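RECORD TYPE: inverse folding
INPUT: C-alpha cells
STRUCTURE:
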C-alpha cells in the first residue's frame, strides 16, 4: 500500500485526477468504478478541467453503489451525482455506463448479472474509493463478508448519521443500499483510496495500523491488495 500525503483537499483531488488521466492514456478502454460523496467531488471537478485533453470514448464506467428507493432524478441519488459530476460533463453514452439502481437491481439474478459484467471486463482496471468513518469501503459495512458479490447492504447507524448531512430536515435518510461487494473490490487491478478531512482521521489511523483483514473494519482488507494508492490530505492525517 502506497501512501501519498497531499497538502489539502484540492491537492488530493489533483493527484487523483492525474492518476485517472494516466489510466485512460495507458488503456483507453479501461473499466473504471466510480464512487460518489464529498471526497471524490473535487477529483471529478479536476477531471472536468482537463476535459479537452481526455478521451473517454472507449472507457466504461461502473457505479459503485446506490441508495435504495432513490431514483436517478433524486439529487441525493448516486446516479444523479455521477450524471452531474462525470457522465454529463464528458458527454458519455449510456452504453458506456453500468448503473446500479434499486429496486430494479434488487433481484439475485440482477445482482449476479452486475458481477458478471465486472468479470467480463476482467475486473475493474481502476477502482476509486472513499472511506467511511467506520471503515466501510463502497457500502460494505463493518461485519462485511469479504467474499461477497454485489448485494443489498443495511447501512450502519454511524453511516446513516454521517449521511444525514446531505438530506433536508424531515427527509428520510436511506437505511439500505445496493453496493459492489469485496470480491469486485479485490479483483480490481488498481485501487485509489481517497481520504479527506478531520472526520476521517481516525479511519486513516486505523487503516495504517491494521495488520489483519478485519471484517469489522472493512478497509483493512486493502493491505492484501497488490496495487493500492492511498491519497490522504493533511486534515485526515491530523491526530
Ligand atoms: P464521503 O463518503 O466522501 O461523503 O465522506 C465516503 C463514504 O461513505 O465512502
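DESIGNED SEQUENCE:
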Amino acid at each position: 500500500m502506497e501512501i501519498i500525503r497531499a497538502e489539502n483537499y484540492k491537492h488530493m483531488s489533483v493527484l487523483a485526477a492525474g492518476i485517472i488521466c494516466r489510466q485512460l492514456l495507458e488503456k483507453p478502454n479501461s473499466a473504471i468504478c466510480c464512487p460518489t460523496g464529498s471526497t471524490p467531488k473535487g477529483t471529478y471537478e479536476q477531471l472536468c478541467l482537463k476535459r479537452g485533453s481526455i478521451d473517454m470514448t472507449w472507457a466504461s464506467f461502473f457505479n459503485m453503489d446506490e441508495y435504495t428507493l432513490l431514483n436517478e432524478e433524486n439529487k441525493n441519488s448516486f446516479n444523479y451525482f455521477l450524471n452531474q459530476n462525470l457522465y454529463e460533463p464528458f458527454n458519455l453514452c449510456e452504453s458506456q455506463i453500468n448503473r446500479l439502481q434499486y429496486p430494479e437491481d434488487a433481484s439475485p439474478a440482477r445482482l449476479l448479472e452486475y458481477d458478471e459484467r465486472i468479470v467480463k471486463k476482467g475486473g475493474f482496471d481502476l477502482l476509486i474509493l472513499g472511506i467511511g468513518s467506520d471503515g466501510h469501503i463502497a457500502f460494505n459495512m463493518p461485519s462485511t463478508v469479504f467474499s461477497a458479490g454485489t448485494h443489498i447492504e443495511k447501512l450502519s447507524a454511524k453511516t446513516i448519521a454521517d449521511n444525514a448531512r446531505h438530506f433536508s430536515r424531515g427527509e428520510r435518510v436511506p437505511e439500505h443500499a445496493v453496493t459492489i461487494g469485496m470480491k469486485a473490490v479485490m479483483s480490481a487491478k488498481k485501487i485509489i483510496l481517497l481520504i479527506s478531512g478531520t472526520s476521517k482521521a481516525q479511519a486513516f489511523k486505523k487503516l495504517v495500523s491494521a495488520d489483519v483483514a478485519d471484517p469489522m473494519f472493512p478497509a483493512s482488507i486493502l493491505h492484501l491488495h497488490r496495487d493500492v494508492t492511498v491519497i490522504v490530505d493533511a486534515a485526515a492525517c491530523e491526530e
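NOTES: Helices lie at 9-26, 38-49, 78-87, 108-120, 157-163, 182-186, 201-209, 234-237.
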